[in-house]
């Protein structure tokens, strides 16, 4: 009876580690990335959304420059 349990444990661990290795490989190689969604997302953005994104980016850059100038002046 112990031999069967030992064999089941070993086989179960081998299968588990195999599945984990395949998952890690897939995550590192980008198998779960949805590049099509990212590319098609540009098609559905309106001009207003793009202008809003540009203005937010400019505000973010300005705030970073302000923080840098404040830390340099101190």
Automatic annotation (TrEMBL):
Residue intervals passing through the bilayer: 6-27
InterPro entries attached to this UniProt entry: Cyt_oxidase_maturation_cbb3
Name by which UniProt lists this protein: Cbb3-type cytochrome oxidase assembly protein CcoS
Superkingdom of source: Bacteria
Organism whose genome encodes this protein: Candidatus Marinarcus aquaticus
Gene: ccoS
Keywords (A to Z) from UniProt: Membrane, Transmembrane, Transmembrane helix
């Amino acid at each position: 009876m112990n031999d069967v349990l030992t064999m089941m444990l070993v086989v179960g661990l081998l299968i588990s580690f195999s599945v984990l290795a395949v998952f890690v490989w897939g995550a590192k190689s980008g198998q779960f990335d949805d590049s099509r969604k990212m590319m098609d997302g540009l098609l559905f953005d309106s001009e207003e959304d793009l202008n809003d994104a540009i203005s937010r980016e400019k505000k973010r850059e300005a705030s970073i420059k302000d923080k840098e100038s404040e830390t340099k002046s101190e």
